[in-house]
Amino acid sequence: FSILSKSKIPDDAVECLGALILIVIESGVSLQNFPQLSKLHQLYFTLPLKNHKAELVFSKTLSKVIREKNKTDWTLAKRDIQYIFSSQSPNLQTLKVYFMKNLPLLAKKLATEQVEMELLMVIQDHFIKSESPVKIWTYSSLPKVIKELHPTTRERYADVFVELVTDNSKDWRLRMQAVESIVELSRLFSRRTRLMKVIPLYLALMKDDCSIIRKNASQNFWKLFEEVSENEEAKIFMRGALIGFSRYPKFTYRIS
Predict the structure, then answer these.
(1) How many Å separate Cα 72 from the centre of its chain?
(2) What angle do CA 83, 84, 87 make, to 5 degrees?
(3) DSSP letter at 89?
(4) Which of 172, 210, 195, 209 is nearest to 241 (CA)?
(5) Containing H/E element for 35?
(6) In 3-state terms, what secondary structure has residue 231?
(7) What is the dihedral of CA 127, 132, 136, 138, to 10 degrees?
């Protein structure tokens, strides 16, 4: 405590504190049983972490803390998000990815209203507009976050998934993530939204300029077809698209 109360804190002290907290959390012991450690932990999240390794410890600690708690204090979580986006570290991207990986679990532990009114706003304002690797993890995690919303509320977010692909059309890794998420996406929305937005996005990916994306998209055809099997209109639409692909002038599309 005496070291951490100083105006200039050695980077080694910050890193050692983070490592200590990680050891305690990974052991399965609740910090609440150790008031001194709990106080150190709260103090740790307020420290200016200039050391690169210390920042990585910070992000891993955040991950463990989210997993440990039955309920997450959204006020503290927002503070941690603000730290991440105010950081000027070269490891800022790594911090964002660590946080993005844990967003589904964070969403499960928040009230539905907090997910809708606050967490999703943070995602849209920061993560979706972030660097390519962060956007990819956003596309991977976002369906699991949206799942926590009421079905009627989810409908508003269908366009987010479509726009992420269309606005980043040159990022083949993001398009690949869209292919891998398409079946999960189809389960989130109503029959009409599947037909009007999810299926057209998928069929566009089946005609992608990148061969690996076309190949993976075509392998998901029957999985998606099964998901819409109760919707005759969607089945007719997909069968028509399949026939259209078989007659397409480009042989690469016919292969798919």
Answers:
(1) 18
(2) 80
(3) -
(4) 195
(5) helix 35-44
(6) coil
(7) 0
Rounded (5°) CA angle 78-149-118: 20
Evaluate if residue 99 carries a pLDDT over 60. Answer: yes
Amino acid at 201: L
| Model pLDDT for residues 30-44, shown as the tens digit of each residue | 666 777 777 776 666
Token duo for residue 164: 């992420």
Q: Which tens digits make up the pLDDT trace of 200-233? A: 999 888 888 888 998 888 888 888 888 888 888 8
Which amino acid would we find at residue 62? Answer: L
Query: Residue 42 burial (CB < 10 Å; 0-12/13-18/19+)?
Result: exposed
Q: What is the pTM of this model?
A: 0.68
Task: Report residue 67's pLDDT band, with 50, 70 and 90 as the boundaries.
Answer: low
Question: Which residues does 62 contact at the CB level (< 8 Å), separation at least 6?
Answer: 80, 98, 99, 102
Whether residue 59 contacts residue 98, with contact meaning beta carbons closer than 8 Å, is answered with yes
Query: What Cα–Cα distance (Å) separates residue 123 from each residue in 92, 107, 134, 139, 202?
Result: 16, 12, 11, 11, 23
Contacts of 12 (CB under 8 A, 6+ apart): 51
Q: Report the amino acid identity of residue 69.
A: K
The answer to whether the beta carbons of residues 39 and 5 sit under 8 Å apart is: no
Tokens of 3: 């070291």
Q: What tokens does 182 get?
A: 């398409």
Question: Are 17 and 44 spatial neighbours (Cβ–Cβ below 8 Å)?
Answer: yes
